Amino acid sequence: MTASMSQCLMQMVHTDYQISDYQSAITPRWCTGCGDNAILTAMQRLCRDEQLPPEKTVCVSGIGCASRLPHYMNAYGFHGIHGRALPIAEGIKIRRPDLHVFVTTGDGDCCSIGAAHWLHAVRYNMNMTMLLHDNNVYGLTKKQASPTSPKGLKSNTTPFGATLNPLNPLSVTLGIANVSFVAQVPDWIPELLYDVLSKAYHHKGFSFIRILQRCPNFMNHHFDAAVQDPLRIRMLTHSNGLRLKPELSRIYKNQETHDPLDLHRAQALAVLDEEIPVGVLYSNPDVPCYDELRKGKRPNTPQLVETVLNEEFDKVGIWPEGQQAASNGE
Amino acid sequence: MQVAQIITDPQVPGSDASAGAAALTALRPALFARYMALDTLRYDYPLVLVEGEEVQKPLIPLSQIVDEALRLVAPLGPDGEELRQQVLRLEQRMRDKVAKGTEEKLSELWRISSAELVAESGQSTFGPLDETLERAWGAITVDGRVIGCSEATPRKVLAHVWQAMHHMRARKFRYKVDRLVLKLNDILKSDHIKSDEAHSPGALAQSMGLDGDKSIDFSALSNILHRVRPEDRLPADRVARIRHVLQVLQTQAFFGPGRATFSYPDKAVCYSYVFQSCTEALDAYRDRLPSVIEFTKALAIAEMEVENKYVPELHDAIFESFDESDLTEEQMAFLPPAVVFLRDGVTESVELARAYEALACGLPIKVMIQVDDILGPTSPEPPRNSFGAGNARLASMAMGINNAFVVQCSSAHMVRMQGDLVAAMQYGGPAMFSIYSGATKTVAGVPAYILAAAATECRMFPNFSYDPSAGNDLASRFDLSANPQLERDWPEHTLLFEDTSGRRQQETVRFTLGDFALADARYHRFCQTVEAGSWSGDMVPFDEQLKASSSATDIKRAFVLGIDRQNQMMRVVVDDKITVAARRCNDAWTQLQELAGINNSHVLAKLAEERRKREALVVELSTESSLTQSPDEAKTEPAPGAPVPKTEAKAVEEESDSAVAEVLDDMPWIETSRCTTCNECRQINDRLFGYNENMQAFIADPDAGTYRQLVDAAEGCQVSIIHPGKPRNPNEPDLEDLMERAKPFL
What we know:
heterodimer, A: alpha/beta, Rossmann fold, nine-stranded mixed β-sheet, 34% helix, 17% strand, B: alpha/beta, 43% helix, 12% strand
């Protein structure tokens, strides 16, 4: 194939992207101590390590603190409307499968107004990575209860405490048809955050990562128990999942070997009460991808569109005797 | 020669020349008896050349299509029996039509035949029979021309397979080229959008579409639009290069546009790839070579431009010097290969030499040589012992070229070999097909299919394939498995017959070249029939004669079993010439077997040697053991208590606690790998705290800040990873208080 020649020639052009190549001119305006910073850094590290050309990378978001992330990435970005990040990302991916698509969204954006899109995006299983920055609260609008807020949380909308039990994004995602990748990781263990993001990026299909994200202003100390007590975190390790480095393994001693193909165990782990499961809960690369199934046999060139339309019109056309629509050979 | 004398000597009992000559006119091998009424049998023909967009199997026998349809629509048992019988009658009708020379698409043949059956049954159209046949047709998902087995079959089949592969190649080609055209146009379009021309009032009005009420002032709109600096536009040489590449891609003449008629408005007439001679094919290849080179360069440049990786300083020189010698096999395989149809006996022999030359050069060419006569003429003066020496060995010779895909088979086995036919057509390099049609003109009254099958059966024209892309060794490349009874010299069959008293008898016979030659009128002059009453003890079956050494002095008359027009069986004594030809045929077969790893002589010799050595050793050991009690030296287990060597590497020891403590010492430090990049510390002092290449904090310069700043940062750190150490400046104010606050972080 000619590709081999062009690939050889392209290798003559050396590219060496650094983290700074993915940093936009805008300095992040998240609050000091916000977990979003760690997520942004992990994404930039991934882009550098995978040497993703900025012009081939797209970050799509909805509305919320998390959704500011595309502004801080020097790549293509789309700061969409509330809850609608996923349909936009799907449109980009199906039209430009060569792009690396990342979706950043918050618990309000995804699990409330954008819940329907979330369910169908999991079902479509298109090849992209979704990062759910879950700080359990609406932060951008100064503290309102979100679908994942803990029961009893006093906020501007729930002054007497949140009435309902929180929605569990993990168990919801694991229950959707065609789910292919689900992971959970906290923002305060950067190495793990990077590893999980890397796993998700390399997964073929829709990768869903729930990131437990600290909000120092409106949910201060909410994750302190887990930050300060490593035993509260159950590390899910496996040769096909997360592999802990010795230094982390010494700190996080509460470990379980979990096969990411074991959906039933993943569903049980997703609803653990006292502990936080961290790692790849489910990963199945064999789930069909909607973008691949719907891939056309030919690129949709304007000429092809015109031809197909003409063919359709010709079906109901009336031809003078002895004439008919021109047929095309090879 | 001695045998021949006996046959032709009229004094020898049972060798009546005139009676024998009469019987010989309708002579054929006894094993043909069961298959002579071929039209009533269900076998690989009629064959459907399946058409369609993505054909997995381009050749499907009609009987197989019918069976599949019946499996779907006719329930097992009596319920489906009537339907089954009606559809099978329809199949027989179609079979008869094809045998008489009808060649139609399956859908048309089905329609005509079912209309005839319905008319014959006296039922009306849309009656029960018509409905039944229509229902069966509904279960058939393929269509294509239906052909019988004849002289023209090999070419039709190969042309069909080539066409199917051509369509597949065309789809792949168009996908790639169209995608590149689309992307290159996008690049030009995005540049054009920045131009003054695109910002002109006229262009803006055009892009807006209809503006019925004229409510938009496009001149004003044009004036307020941001002007792009010249340096933000694409370089002129890049635009020119992309335009040139687009021109080449869109005017290529290797494949037609397919459905998108308007894709290539300036498209030249497509190149022709089907030829009747290698000379024509090679001339055409030379003619289109400049276009091939230009297109290949354009394709590579397009791929690089799309990735924005074309650097003129680096790549211009490479593409300027790109010529024929730089074309790779993959690049040529992207374009259609030529197919050449040659015919042994019709094509001039110089063309065969050219074919081998083209194959050896690795040119993208597929050559089919159709062989109609594998035994060859016997008169007026054939070279001595040359029967079948040439035509049946064309493929074996091509295998020696090594880089060509080679397929040899007879018409009767093309369905079975279709995987190889398809693979050879898809193969990136050259390929050669040697096909025996079975339509030998000197063989009268034997269907081409039977003769073709018999040629394979008697090892004269074995089926095999040689695929250079399958691996590096013969075991991967060479496949002989599509032959009957692979491990035998000659296939064995049970022949059933009645004796003169009408009793059923059976005999095991082997089908040899002698049997095959019996069907050919030219070879009857080397045969002599012997009536049953004249059979004598000096007659031996032909295959046994072949097993005997060629220098044996015991004179026997070798015979094969033949039948006449009335299926009367007789022994036919054959000449020594046929024996020699059969031995040569067997030699060639044995060599193919060896290539396929069957009875490999090297392996057999090695095995025999090893066996001999082992037997000698056993004899030696038994002799020794009978003389002395041999010590138990073979004991391999270590003695109890013996030291066991260590096999596992010693685990790496962790750094000692004291070393860690030394590192910590009194210096401030940060657990960098746990930093979450929250920027809090750097907001306190961005010279004291720095970020590493992963954007994680570390102490950049411990003297660039105060101890107070270190302690403040440690307290503010969300993940408590900053350790302030001990104060470096003993004169700093409030040190005691600060050290107290630093204690939790030391």
